[in-house]
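Page 42, continued from yesterday. The earlier attempt failed because a stray header line got pasted into the input along with the sequence. Redoing it now with the clean sequence only.
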Amino acid sequence: MRHFHICAVVVLIGSLLPVGSADADTISFSDSIPLTLTNWSDTVSIQKFDPSLGILLDVEFTLAENFVGSMCFENMDENNPSPFTLRLSWLVALQRPDSSDLVTIDSLREESGVVAPFDGLLDFGGPSGVTFDIDEAETATGSAMPGDLALFTGVGTIELPVVATAESFVSGGSPAASYFSAAAAADVTVTYVYIPEPASLSMLAFGGLALRRRRRRR
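This time it went through. Structure tokens are written below.
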């Protein structure tokens, strides 16, 4: 009989666990890295999930990046026009402490055309030069792998690496001059999805056990 009642309590606990997002709460923590010339590597500090709040179900990540840059080309040939192709690609990634990726944003900007012979001014403008300014923002999201729940649970903070890299490419006539600039900023938000107050579930389960014991005594 004793084994029967223990099994009944296990079933009761299982039946009390909420199912679905309607029964879950969320709490979020954020940190940011200001606009910095690429290539850079930095960290954000995120509060871990306090297990006294409840049972952690999921960890959601939001990475928002702002990229500011420019691509410039000047034809230095005084006699002939010049075709050109300019390309600037950049990557911003939020990582685990072991440098494996959690969320990445991979972007590309490319421009091509033809400019006139050199107009005597190296200003990346006028008929012989071009300048393309870039100011783009993008957001990406991701969810935790099963092993991440333990990684993000505990006391204190977790330091998450964020990296930003940029690569440039230019082709055109010769002689020519080109110039690229690139800077990126990152905002990171970590959201914990959890079932609140696991202690209340234990109390309900204990109440069910006590009720069964009282019934046995009768």
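Notes: Strands lie at 25-37, 40-47, 54-75, 82-95, 101-115, 129-143, 157-172, 176-196.
Reminder to self: strip header lines before submitting.
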